[in-house]
């Protein structure tokens, strides 16, 4: 062989994924697995106004539903995160069900971190040290279990980080908190059909960009690369269909 084999470390967190028309039948069982009895719903105001969506969630959660927070804002500003944290505290939730796109999922995660740690986002966010290394403060407190019901293509579903926006300065702040990873993800066709084609196309293009960034990372490994490559393959197959649906048969470029 000639050369010593390179070391490889691939850490894969637990992921329980349910897909299809009957996927939400498993939500109650997943809540039972974590002994959750008071599930707080976090979603957009648009979804909250849909009787079909609200009915679907109510049926899945039953008496476990302890309230809903609908004041999610695009890009997850700190004000919305703090408001969501207060809602979780006041509702005495022991689980979070996030229904929506990336901003909803990130807001739910970040709010759970603020609630548990009792500190502000600027105090807990990742920062660059004097030697230019990025440092993520330890966030040791237990977090509310997260259950994610996405409505758009988004890499936020499986992340441990939450990038929130400080509107006053335009600064993006990242909270790295593995305890906020989703316990289970549910892909339900009714939920996935709620956003406009334009929103799905925008989300898919963002997912494409993040997949490419992941493949360019110097810290990647063969298993991660395989998953990212597969995501690019799916996007390559599906993006032209979205393009035709939204733009007719015109190319994406002008």
Tell me what the structure shows:
This protein has 254 residues and is an alpha/beta fold. It folds into 2 domains: 16-194, Rossmann fold (3-Layer(aba) Sandwich), CATH 3.40.50.1970; 196-247, no CATH class. It contains 9 helices and 10 strands. It has a 6-stranded parallel beta sheet, with helices on both faces. Helix 4 (78-91) crosses helix 5 (102-117) and helix 8 (197-216) runs antiparallel to helix 9 (222-247). The N and C termini lie far apart (52 Å). 34% of the residues are buried.
What's the short story on this structure?
With 254 residues, the protein is an alpha/beta fold. It has 9 helices and 10 strands.
Provide tags for this entry.
9 helices, single chain, two-stranded antiparallel sheet, 2 domains, six-stranded parallel beta sheet, Rossmann fold, globular, alpha/beta, 254 residues, 10 strands
Radius of gyration, rounded?
Answer: 19 Å
Query: How are helices and strands ordered from N to C?
Result: EHEHHEHEHHEEEEEEHHH
The share of residues in extended strands comes to 15-25%
What is the SS-derived class? alpha/beta
Q: What percent of the residues sit in helical stretches (DSSP H or I)? A: 40-55%
And the CATH topology of the largest domain? Answer: Rossmann fold
Give the strand order, joined by hyphens, for the main sheet. 1-10-7-4-2-3
Strand tally: 10
Please identify the top-level CATH class of the largest domain.
Answer: Alpha Beta
Note the gap between the termini: 52 Å
């Amino acid at each position: 062989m000639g050369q010593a084999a390179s070391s490889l470390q691939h850490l894969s967190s637990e992921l329980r994924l349910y897909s299809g028309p009957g996927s939400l039948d498993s939500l109650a069982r997943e809540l039972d697995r974590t002994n959750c009895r008071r599930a707080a719903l976090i979603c957009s105001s648009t979804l909250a106004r849909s009787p079909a969506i609200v009915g679907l969630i109510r049926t899945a959660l039953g008496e476990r539903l302890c309230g809903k927070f609908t004041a999610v804002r695009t890009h997850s500003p700190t004000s919305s995160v703090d408001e969501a944290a207060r809602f979780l505290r006041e509702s005495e939730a022991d689980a979070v069900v996030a229904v929506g796109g990336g901003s909803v999922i990130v807001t739910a995660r970040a709010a759970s971190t603020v609630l548990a740690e009792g500190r502000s986002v600027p105090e807990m966010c990742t920062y660059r040290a004097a030697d230019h290394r990025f440092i993520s403060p330890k966030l040791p407190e237990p977090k509310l279990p997260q259950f994610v019901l996405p409505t758009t293509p988004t890499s936020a579903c499986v992340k441990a980080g939450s990038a929130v926006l400080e509107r006053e300065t335009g600064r993006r702040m990242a909270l790295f908190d593995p305890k906020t990873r989703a316990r289970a993800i549910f892909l339900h066709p009714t939920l996935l059909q709620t956003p406009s084609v334009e929103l799905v196309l925008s989300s898919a293009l963002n997912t494409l960009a993040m997949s490419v960034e992941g493949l360019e990372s110097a810290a990647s490994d063969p298993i991660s690369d395989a998953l990212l490559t597969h995501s690019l393959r799916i996007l390559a197959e599906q993006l032209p269909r979205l393009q035709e649906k939204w733009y007719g048969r015109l190319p994406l470029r002008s």
